[in-house]
Amino acid sequence: MRKKPNIIFILTDDQGAWAMNCAGNADIKTPNLNYLAESGIRFDNFFCASPVCSPARASILTGCIPSQHGVHDWIRSGSLDKEKLGEKKNDPYYSNEDRPIQYLEGLRTYTDILSENGYTCALAGKWHLGDSMTPQHGYSKWFTIGRGGCYYYKADVIENGEIYYENRYITDVITNKAIEYIEELSSKEEPYYINVNYTAPHDPWDENQHPKEFVDLYRDCEFNATPNEPIHPNQIHSAPIGIGEERKRLLRGYYAAVSAMDAGVGRILDKLREKGELENTMIIFSADNGMNMGHHGIWGKGNGTFPMNLYDTAVKVPFIISYPKAFEGGKISFDMASHYDIIHTLVDWLEIDEELSDRLPGRSFKHSLLGEEAEDQSIIILDEYGPNRMIRTKEWKYIHRYPYGPHELYHLSEDPGEKNNLIGQLEYKEIEEKLRSELANWFTKYADPKLDAAKEAVTGCGQLRKAGVYSEGKMTYHPL
């Protein structure tokens, strides 16, 4: 029997779809991502399920929307058992930790499915879905970050059940671990799946956080590929103010982080070539959520403003899939797809005998990989961040904020930059009502009433526990 393809899923942190040279950004240097796009298919309309880390990552793995899996914000606690940290428990960095929480407990992920179908599953890099000490959901190899974010030169990493500080550049450390996995697993009969979950290009963006060679790539860059706009009135006070030279400093660090990560991708590709594994390896590249780096005058992702924003720059993510053995590369797909489609696509592509729940909202985009037209053209994308919800077609976007607004409506085919909010204008009343109805019906169909984020006070400041837990047989809601 032919060995199923190896799969390497490279996931970055806070990388906008715009932050790749192959996506048209002339300033940024990403030669290895360019190679993946040339040898694979780049999606121009790919979306996260929520414009913040943990909910988006939970949706990638489970195919559930946040209002099904209950992770509604980035996770602030539940990653570690503070009493087992030894002298580290007094470090203010761990002040929110108490006991481990497995936020995906009871849910089925595609790594569960892969491991049950002969794949060895390995994690190298960020997890940020609780209980970082314990391998979960089919992973038999586990190297991760203690919490979520970290400094690039002082990351708290977990390996073999031990936590320690890593003084080397964390992007290189994650790459090294991925290469170790390839070296070890390429000699096995079984196919492998490796998550390479970089922390880049998440902040910090200070020059001392990144190797000089990558910072110097942008020393004299004017950053004309990113907008230079007045600060958005809703930007949160803790976000940076990217004006003048500070704007260039922030972008220099962000771009350096992307290019350093790109170099790591190049090293992984070289190892696959060396081991003769490149031909039989499906490489997927994406980011957990998008990012505003001055776009709309915002410095941050969905929670860079309050109320949270759902601009395309926050919800669109890079997505490239390369597998030259099976489909022709060098193409761009303009089909709309989402992270919650990945579990369906992998099961479909690998022809795994798994009946996915009809409660999952996604669909396979295998047809897009094969250059075929979808049977159903009525694809819409929905996104959420707490009580803020978006429905998007290729032509229109409607944003509804529970309970009181403000709401937004954009005619994307005429206003791709989302500059002109048409909400409340009489001539667009019919389309506004249609989209509002479709959005409400979709969430009624798929959201779990016990975990529905429209009822949660999600602020963008982090989630401390599960959104809903049973107590004496009754559902109780906990503030996030």
From TrEMBL:
Keywords, sorted A to Z: Calcium, Hydrolase, Metal-binding
UniProt keyword annotation of Transport present: no
CDD domains on file: sulfatase_like (cd16149)
Signal peptide: none
Domain Sulfatase N-terminal: 5-351
InterPro entries: Alkaline_phosphatase_core_sf (IPR017850), Sulfatase (IPR050738), Sulfatase_CS (IPR024607), Sulfatase_N (IPR000917)
Entries under Gene3D superfamilies matching the protein: Alkaline Phosphatase, subunit A
Example of a GO MF term: arylsulfatase activity
Designated name of the protein: Sulfatase-like hydrolase/transferase
Species for this entry: Zhenhengia yiwuensis
